[in-house]
Specification:
Length: 397
């Protein structure tokens, strides 16, 4: 194994350490409340499942499908963008279905990068954002994204990263609403991103997975709605979170025709696309009633409020996120010195609650844990009671 070049370039998967401890604890019969992985716990809406079942019974849908997605799905994607964000897309050249956004991101990097090409990625980041660059033999350039800082400070860091880099970076990968930090942005931010990309001859990839999991009146902008965005980049969306379709693996990328074509070309060698009944059900998801999306977001809002209020009563103040299915919580002062991985282990052992250590999302994630809102309100209250026990231990000895 040590001789496999690409595997050697990948660091140990820090998040797996807590997962392994969780599995062992459950094997001992312990009741672990898993708030680690962002794995939706509610069922896919019934009308989407019904369409899958209907389509799966048709033998014509059992054959190889189209790697870039059936045309009817791409038309639905284009309509979704037009109705949601006022963005016009050509379903033939500016939209492509992917096997979830994770697969699409990784294969797009393989299509775009030459060995050594540099890509700017905020730190902390969802792991595939950073390691898709590494897997593609690119040069990962982390740009710190500090909690509490505004867009001006972040752009100053971007400018500095470009100025100091040689050779000059080829790309910029962004993700708003952001996983893991839950940070949000506005339309003016993306206008500035487009100008920045033009000035420095960068292509842009924006992961818009959490577009629908928003609260308190916040409405996230699409990168593609910024003037000139299609000239410099693409945007990914996944049906995973908005429609509780995690295991279905269906997403799409839209925007710059050259980048979409590059992804289409490389995928044509690698896969035959998503199982066609899933694509057909995806059409129903995008074009059908959207009340289910609002209900899903409302479920996460209620869970967020229960968790934030509960932690506040324990003397662990955490800011309410305006988006995503996560809470990005600074480690309480008494426990900060032990670091996020050891603190996550403590919560697992003493509170019987699994969370993700911030260090698993990059060195700038140290000092935080990510808590996923993937259990019902009763279980979240139970988790808070367990955390009270763990915090009552008084910190590391």
């Amino acid at each position: 194994m040590d001789d496999f070049y690409r595997i050697k370039r990948l660091p140990p998967y820090v998040l797996a350490a807590v997962t392994d401890l969780k599995v062992k604890a459950r094997a001992r019969g312990e009741d672990i409340i898993d708030l680690g992985m962002g794995n939706p716990d509610r069922p896919t809406p019934r009308h989407i499942v019904d369409k899958l079942v209907e389509a799966a019974k048709n033998p014509r849908n059992h054959r190889y499908s189209a790697s870039r997605g059936i045309r009817r799905l791409r038309v639905a994607i284009a309509r979704w963008y037009r109705e949601r964000f006022g963005v016009e897309l050509d379903p033939e050249t500016e939209a492509i279905a992917t096997i979830g956004s994770k697969e699409g991101l990784a294969h797009l990097m393989l299509a775009l990068l030459q060995p050594g090409d540099a890509v700017l990625v905020p730190n902390p980041a969802y792991p595939i954002h950073a390691y898709s660059v590494v897997i593609a033999d690119g040069d990962l350039r982390s740009v710190p994204m500090v909690a509490g800082e505004g867009h001006g400070e972040f752009f100053a860091r971007l400018e500095e990263a470009v100025r100091l880099a040689w050779p000059k970076p080829k790309g910029l990968l962004l993700n708003f609403p952001h996983n893991p930090t839950t940070q949000v942005t506005d339309a003016g931010f993306f206008e500035r991103v487009v100008d920045f990309a033009r000035e420095h001859r960068l292509w842009v990839i924006h992961d818009f997975t959490y577009a629908d999991l928003v609260f308190d009146g916040y409405r996230p902008p699409s990168f593609l709605a910024a003037r000139g965005a299609k000239e410099v980049g693409v945007e990914f969306f996944s049906l995973t979170k908005s429609y509780n379709m995690a295991g279905w693996r269906l997403g799409f990328a839209c925007g710059n025709a050259r980048m979409v074509h590059a992804l289409s070309r490389i995928k044509s060698y690698l896969d035959y696309g998503v199982f066609q009944p899933i694509q057909i059900a995806g059409i129903v998801a995008l074009e059908g009633p959207q009340a289910c999306v609002e209900d899903i977001a409302e479920t996460y809002r209620r869970r967020r409020d229960v968790l934030i209020a509960g932690l506040g009563r324990l003397g662990w103040p955490v800011e309410k996120p305006r988006a995503t299915m996560f809470v990005w919580a600074p480690i309480p002062e008494a426990f900060r010195a032990m670091g996020s991985l050891e603190f996550a282990k403590l919560l697992l052992a003493e509170a019987k609650v699994a969370v993700s250590p911030g260090i698993g999302f990059g060195e700038c994630g140290e000092g935080y844990v990510r808590i996923a809102l993937v259990e019902n309100e009763h279980r979240i209250r139970q988790a808070v009671r367990g955390i009270r026990t763990a915090l009552g231990s008084g910190g590391p000895g």
